[in-house]
Design brief:
Shape: globular
Order of helices and strands: HHHHHHHHHH
Radius of gyration: 21 Å
Number of strands: 0
CATH topology: Lysozyme
Number of helices: 10
Largest sheet: none
CATH class: Mainly Alpha
CATH architecture: Orthogonal Bundle
Distance between the termini: 67 Å
Strand content: under 5%
């Protein structure tokens, strides 16, 4: 009997810890949730969903690399303030999730990044520029997402940012001077896929698109 009474405080503490753990999960939007657990599990769950999305899209990434790449997509999107669901839509339009693609204009990899972008933003991204650096999917993603974020400083809408990502900064500035909301086959394709992603994947509450889908 005395042993049972001695164990009751331990059981109570264990129960409290369990409850606190559960309410800290990402789906518990309560004011008393624990930020550490919420952030950790939010990251883990979202990265898992991204990996599942890549698998469903038959991304040509080795199995052992795919889950690590999903983490890179999530982390780069959070770091640079870009909705990861938009990043996934850009990847599909640009390369159909293939890292081995090189365009006739020299764009490389899963996000079709040009070497001039990698050279220009090497310091900001924190990746030393060298030949073939964009052949690494992790570097390719980080440069591509950073470039989307950088373009967002010069263009007011997501559609304009996408247009600039597709045609280049200089060309976009010339065209958007006449048409502030460019609607091309490319931007429409990305937006349609982005809209589908928004129904399939949860929003990361720390990052949001600056413009709603209309």
């Amino acid at each position: 009997m005395h042993e049972m009474k001695a164990l009751r405080p331990l059981a109570l503490v264990g129960g409290i810890i369990g409850i606190l753990f559960l309410i800290s999960l990402p789906f518990a939007n309560t004011p008393w949730s624990i930020p550490f657990f919420g952030t950790y599990w939010g990251k883990k769950c979202t990265a898992t969903l991204i990996a599942a999305h890549l698998e469903k899209k038959r991304a040509r990434i080795p199995d052992g690399e795919l889950r690590e790449l999903a983490k890179t997509i999530y982390e780069a999107s959070r770091s640079y303030g870009v909705d990861y669901r938009l990043v996934l839509a850009v990847m599909e339009a640009e390369s159909n999730f293939r890292q081995d693609v090189v365009s006739n204009k020299g764009a490389i990899g899963i996000m079709q990044v040009k070497t001039i972008v990698a050279r220009e933003f090497s310091r900001q991204v924190g990746i030393f520029y060298k030949k073939n650096v964009l052949n690494c999917p992790h570097a390719n993603v980080r440069f591509g997402v950073y470039y989307l974020s950088w373009l967002g400083k010069y263009f007011n809408t997501d559609r304009a940012v996408l247009f600039a990502y597709n045609v280049g900064f200089t060309r976009a500035r010339q065209v958007i001077g006449k048409n502030s909301e460019p609607k091309t086959t490319y931007t429409q394709r990305v937006f349609e896929e982005y809209e589908r992603n928004c129904t399939r994947l949860p929003m990361d509450e720390t990052v949001g698109s600056r413009q709603s889908i209309t």
